Amino acid sequence: MALPYLEAVLCFMILMYIFETYLDIRQHRALKLPTLPKPLLGVISNEKFERSRAYSIDKSHFHFVHEAVTILMDTTILYYRVLPWFWKKSGEMVTNVGLNAENETIHTLAFLAGAMVWSQITDLPFSLYSTFVIEARHGFNKQTIWLFIRDMVKGILLSMILGPPIVAAIIYIVQIGGPYLAIYLWGFMFVLALLMMTIYPIIIAPLFNTFTPLPEGVLREKIEKLAASLKFPLKKLFVVDGSTRSSHSNAYMYGFFKNKRIVLYDTLIQQCSNEDEIVSVIAHELGHWKLNHTVYSFVAVQLLMFLQFGGYTLVRNSKDLFESFGFEDQPIIIGLIIFQHTIIPLQHLLSFCLNLVSRAFEFQADAFAKNLGYAPQLRAALVKLQEENLSAMNTDPWYSAYHYSHPPLVERLQALEDSDSKKED
């Protein structure tokens, strides 16, 4: 008799849904508070606060519905053994088109193609409502339905191009891995991560957005001067047309070794009132680089991935595990899917720990920008971005600690003020 792995997974999924719903309720109550937090009184305008409050409450209502539907579908699929049924049907489909279902790679690709179609169908209503109702209602959505469809089609085509060779490689590695399977899998994923980090900004991202060099002028001069003072190997400075899809703003950097690039959203340039505010945001991002946060995060992710692959090698041949989920045979891709479900408790714990580390990094990057003399400009930029993005002004501390990878605005402003006070003392 198979051990009740499936029942344990379902139980934890439901318990986690209950726990996270409790946190969502706490956050919803915080969002409905009619007044600003004391530290933001006189800092955030009442008009922006009311707009932010309405936007956050709308997103919260949507989140409750989305999560309820998701847990219902996921538990139904597992409980009623939809996965083994669909694995069998995908094999029949392969046979019907004249291919060999005994070839595990072909069978797996057919299974994943069906899963992708299902995912697109079930996610589409939520994506449409989020984009064309909630985001549009609050003035953020800038894309047309045709641009939305075009992006979706491009994403599907990319999956069809990139997915098969990656899946085939993983199956092959598992088949020949032997006692060194965890090392081989990790090595492959490590190389794949480096490859994707290289080709994504150069080949994939331009398929969806237009990247143009930041024009000559005061802003460019100040960013280049700051980068040079920190010995940041800035090679290119781009502006991306984020405004074609949304009014939300951001900035980021990428590239290896001596070939770094910085990308500014055009909305960031539009929303900040002067160049120094934008430069303060870049100073914060450069702080992450100078303090090696990106390296530490990458190493942590790679270590966790290796540990996960090590765990997978221990259970991949467990007949009881597969039988508990309704499978008579032991397909490689199904083993990976089942394993991901069985380590859900560990994944939630690790996610929480990574958020704690990320929040600490954000405080350190803020302090780095402040030490460069950008404290007033960074405060102004943080407030401006909070207002323009209509981010939540009131947050529940439990919800924030569990979900947020970035500290709330109140905490960031307080940390900047505290560091100023310590310096004066």
Briefly characterize the structure.
The chain has 15 helices and four strands.
- For the record, give the distance between the C-alpha atoms at the N and C termini, rounded to a whole number: 70 Å
Cα gyration radius (Å): 24 Å
Order of helices and strands: HHHHHHEHEEEHHHHHHHH
The count of DSSP E runs of length 2 or more, i.e. the number of strands, is 4
Main beta sheet: 4 strands, mixed
Structural commentary:
- It is globular, with a radius of gyration of 24 Å.
- The chain has a four-stranded mixed β-sheet.
- A hairpin with a 5-residue loop joins β3 (251-254) and β4.
- The protein is mainly alpha-helical.
- The mean pLDDT is 89.
- 72% of the residues lie in helices and 5% in strands.
- The protein contains 15 helices and four strands.
- α6 (181-204) packs across α10 (293-315).
- Proteolytically removes the C-terminal three residues of farnesylated proteins.
